[in-house]
Amino acid sequence: MLFLRRFNLDWWKSLLFGNRIHSGLLFSVFLYALLIAIGFVYLYPLLFMFVTSLKSPSDLLNPMVQWVPTEFYTGNYEKAYRVLNYPNTLMASILVSVVPSLIQTCIASLVGYGLARYRFWGRNLILLLILATFIIPPQNTVIPQMLVYKEQGLLGSPWALILPALLGQGYKSAIFILIFYQSFISLPKVLEEAARLDGASDLRIFLTIAVPSALPAFIVSFIFSVVWYWNETFLTVIFLEGGVTTLPMQLSRFVQAYESLYPPGTVNIFDRLNEAVKMSGTFLNIAPMLVMYFLLQRWFVESVERTGITGE
Amino acid sequence: MKILRRNLVTLRLREALHGYGFIALWVVGFLFFTLFPLIETFHYSLNQVTVTAEGIRLDFVEWANYTRALFTDPNFIELVIGYAIETIVSVPIVLIFSMIIALFLNLKFRFKGLFRTIFFLPVIITSGPVIRELTAQGATVAPGIANTPAVAEFLTQLPRTLRNPVEYLLTSFILILWFSGVQILIYLSSLQKVDKSIYEAAAIDGASAWQTYWKITLPSLSTATLINAIYTIIALSHFSENKVIQYIYDQTYAVQGGIGYASAMAFLYFAVMILLLGIVYLFLAHQAKRERN
C-alpha cells in the first residue's frame, strides 16, 4: 500500500510544488539557490578583500592563483599593522566613537521623551527641525564650526565631536531622537501617571520608570551610534586633523604612511606597497566592527522591529 | 468654574514648561551647531573669504560665487549632473533590491538569521576609505560582467549621455546594493505589520500569489517605500566619497577657491538634493496617501 502511494501523482505534486501548508521542494531549492547567489554577489568585495590580503607577493604575480592562496601568508598583516599604527589608532577610534555615542544616546532619550510625553507650543516645529538636521548636508554647517573650534583651540581634540553630541547635535542625531520618540510614545502612560500622583518629580519619573522600560531603544541607539561614528570620515577629518587620528583617517593616507615607513627606493621588490597590503589594512580597519557585529548581531537586525523606527 | 479653568491653564503651562526643560539642550544645540553655522555659511557664500593671521576677512561680492559655480567652473556643474544621474539610477535599484530581499526574509525557511546577518553587514563596515580601497581594487564590480570585451564594445556604441549611467551601474553595482541594509529592515518590519487575515481572505477568494503581491503586499508597503526612497537619497548625498562633496572639500582649502566659493557650492548642492527629494516625494507620496485612505 505504502509502496503504491509513492507513485501517487498527488503525493509527488505536493512534494515538488507544495501545498497549503508546506512550500514545495522546487520552491525551496530555487529560494536557497537565489539567496546564496545574491549573498555571494553581496559579499564578493569582502571575500575579495580577505583572500587578497592573504596573498604573498609571488601569489599576486601568479595568474593561476585566484581564490586560494598557495600559503598562509601573514606578512601583509604585519606591515599593515605597523603602517596603521594599529594600537594607537584603534584606541583613538574607540575613544571618538564610544564617548560621543554614549552622550548622544542619553541626550536623544531626553529629547525623545520630552516630545513624546509633553504637550507644548511648537512641538511640531521642533519635530520638523529635527528632520531638517537630518537632511542638511554637513558641508553647509561645518566651516563656521571649524573656524570657531580653531579659535578656541579645540581643533584636533575629541571635544570637537563631544560638544555637538552633548547638545543633541551629534552625528545622525535625528534618527536616535526619532527612535526614542517612537519607543516612548508606544509605552503605556499608566505607570508614569501613578508615580506623578504619588508626587514623584518629572526627572525622577523619567529616570526610574521611562528609562528602564525603553532599554532596547538605548542599546540599539548606542550601538548604531558607535557604528556610524566609527565609519564617519567627513567630520572627523575636518575636526580632528592634526590631533587625534582614527583608523579610517589613517587608512585614507595609507600610501604616504607606508612610504614613510618603507621608503620606495630602499626596500626590495617584495616589500613594495601592493594591493595585498592595502587590503590587509582595509580588513584591519573593519575587523573591530565585524567582531562587534557578530557579538551583538541580534540587536542590529532585530532593532527596527524592536524600536518601531518606521511607525507611521 | 473660574478657579477650575485657571487651574487647567496653570497645569497646561506647567506641562509645557517641563516639556521645554527636556528639549532645552537640543534647542541650544540646534541654534549653535546647526542654525547659526548655516546662516554663517550662507553669509560666507556671498563674500570673498580670506583667512589671515588675525582671523578671516570678508569682502562682499553679492552672487559672484554662485555665478562662478554655475557658469564659469567647468567641473562643478558636470559633477552635480553626474551626482543627480547616479542618484536617480541608484534609488530604484536600492528600492527594488531591498524589497525583494525583504520579501524573501519574510518567508519561513531555515538559516533565515544567517541571510539576514549577511544582508545587513554592509551597514556596519561602509566607511569612505574602506569603499575607496575596495573600488580601487575593482572589488565592487559585479563579478564577471563589466570586464568582458563584449560589454566594453557595447558601451562604446552608446551615446555619451547614456553611457555614463550604464558604466556607473556596471562598475559600482555591488556598492549600490550595499546601500540597502537599513532599507531592507524597514521593509521587513513594514511587512510584518500587515494583517495576516487579509492574506487568508484573499487565499479563500482564490487569489494567486501574483495577484496577492500586487493588490495587497505592494500597496501596504507604499509608506515604507517613501521613507526608504528619502533615506536612500540622503545616504547617497551625504556619503563622504561622493564626488561633489569631495570637490567642495578640496575647493575649501584651494588657493583659487576658498571658503566663500565652497560655501556657495554647498548651497547649490543642497538645492539640487532638495529638488531630488521633492521629485521623489511628489512621485511616491501621492501613492502612499491614496493607500492610507
Give a description of the structure.
The complex is a heterodimer of chains A (312) and B (293). Chain A is mainly α and 312 residues long. Chain A has helices at residues 2-5, 9-17, 25-53, 57-61, 75-83, 86-117, 123-135, 142-152, 159-166, 173-185, 190-197, 202-213, 215-231, 234-240, 247-252, 254-261, 275-301, 303-307. The model of chain A has no long low-confidence stretch (mean pLDDT 83). Chain A starts with a helix and ends in a 5-residue tail after the last helix. Chain A folds into 2 domains: 2-79, no CATH class; 80-307, MetI-like (MetI-like fold), CATH 1.10.3720. The radius of gyration of chain A is 27 Å and the shape is flat. Chain B is mainly alpha-helical and 293 residues long. Chain B has 2 domains: 2-42; 73-126 and 179-292, MetI-like (MetI-like fold, Orthogonal Bundle), CATH 1.10.3720.10. Chain B has helices at 2-45, 64-72, 74-105, 112-125, 128-136, 149-157, 160-171, 173-178, 181-192, 196-204, 209-220, 222-238, 243-253, 259-292; strands spanning 47-51, 56-60. In chain B, a hairpin with a 4-residue loop joins strand 1 (47-51) and strand 2 (56-60). The model of chain B has no long low-confidence stretch (mean pLDDT 84). Chains A and B meet through helix 3, helix 6, helix 7, helix 8 and helix 9 of A and helix 1, helix 4, helix 5, helix 8 and helix 9 of B.
- Domain count of chain B: 2
Number of strands of chain B: 2
The global form of chain A is flat
What shape does the CA trace of chain B take? flat
- Termini separation of chain B: 41 Å
| Number of E-state strands of chain A | 0
Name the CATH superfamily classification of the largest domain in chain A: MetI-like
Secondary structural class of chain B? mainly alpha
* Average pLDDT number of chain A: 83
CATH topology-level fold name of the largest domain in chain A: MetI-like fold
Q: Which structural category do the helix and sheet elements of chain A fall into?
A: mainly alpha
Helix and strand succession of chain B?
HEEHHHHHHHHHHHHH
CATH architecture of the largest domain in chain B: Orthogonal Bundle
Low-confidence stretches of chain B: none
Give the number of domains of chain A: 2
Corresponding CATH superfamily of the largest domain in chain B: MetI-like
Q: What is the percentage of strand-forming residues of chain B?
A: under 5%
Q: What percent of residues of chain A adopt helix (DSSP H or I)?
A: over 70%
